[in-house]
Every structure is written in C-alpha cells, then in structure tokens.
C-alpha cells in the first residue's frame, strides 16, 4: 500500500501570469454568520444586526458586514493560491461593488497578475493576484488585489508536518 498525498497547493513555480483559478467552494452566508462576525469585530452599525434598521434602509434588509465578505473571499482563494504561502504582503484596490445579504452564496475566482523572485528569500517568491467574488446571480460583490510570499517547491519550511504513527495504517486494522 502507498500513501497518496492530498492536494498540497501551488508553489511559487506553479504560478504563471494570466492563470485563472475558479475556487471550488461556494459559501452561503447566514444571518447567524453575519451576527457573530459583527459581534466579533465590534461593529456597532445597526444595519448589520437590527432588522428594523435594515428594513428602513435603502436596501430594505440587513446588510452582511463587509469584513465578513472579505474574509470569506480570501478564505475561498487559499486552496488555489496561498496554501503554501507564509506571509501576505498587501491588499490593494479593495472594492465592495454590490451589497451582500444573508442567504447569498459567494463564489470567488483569482487571476495571477505578477510573479517575481524574492531578492531576500531564495526559498520563496512573490505573487500578486486579483480576486473577485460573485454572488449566486453572478453579480460581482467584491474585488481586490493581494500580494504574498509563497514557498518554492522543496523549500525546507514547506514540508509536511503530518505526524508519523508508530505503526502504519493497514487494511488489517479495519
């Protein structure tokens, strides 16, 4: 029997300008998600947690708090872009282009804008992507650029930390 490694993510060498990654996991935002995130981030704007205030707004309902939308979008992109990153260097040109409401399902995709060697870290490189997030109706709700350090394939610090059991897993164990 052989251990079949799961998806290990992309390394610096895997990124090419123009590549597009449609991130595989959509996420439906619930009213509970919105309330918890609003409380967690201490946002006191009632349009995010007071139904009466939300219904009297121009949107006619409560808005999802913007940092939650940003966090979901960034999280959705990790599987394809920063699984092997070790530092975000910046976010630029962040635009919240349409409102998000509880019940909306968010999907994100990223395009590689720039790839360059690191002058100070030979075991890594620097990648810049643009991510956009769409709702279930294909309306763009968010866009931003993000730059990050990512390990090169084989970099010492990029190795797996999966613990090795004293006895291997076998079919006889079942």
Question: What descriptors fit this protein?
Answer:
single chain; 174 residues; alpha+beta; Thiol Ester Dehydrase, Chain A; 3 helices; 6 strands; HotDog_dom_sf; Bifunctional protein PaaZ
Q: Indicate the CATH class.
A: Alpha Beta
Indicate the mean pLDDT: 93
CATH superfamily membership: Hotdog Thioesterase
N→C terminal distance = 15 Å
Topology:
Layout: E1 20-22, E2 27-28, H1 31-40, H2 51-55, H3 66-81, E3 85-95, E4 105-117, E5 124-134, E6 140-151
Antiparallel strand pairs: 1-4, 2-4, 3-6, 4-5, 5-6
GO molecular function: lyase activity
Protein name: Bifunctional protein PaaZ
Organism: Pseudonocardia autotrophica (Amycolata autotrophica)
What does this 3D model show about the protein?
- The structure is a single chain.
- The chain contains three helices and six strands, in the order ββαααββββ.
- The protein is globular.
- β5 and β6 form a beta hairpin.
- The chain has 174 residues and is an alpha+beta fold.
- Strands 1, 2, 3, 4, 5 and 6 form a six-stranded antiparallel beta sheet that branches.
- It has one domain: Thiol Ester Dehydrase, Chain A (Roll).
- It starts with 19 loop residues before the first strand and ends in a 23-residue tail after the last strand.
- The mean pLDDT is 93.
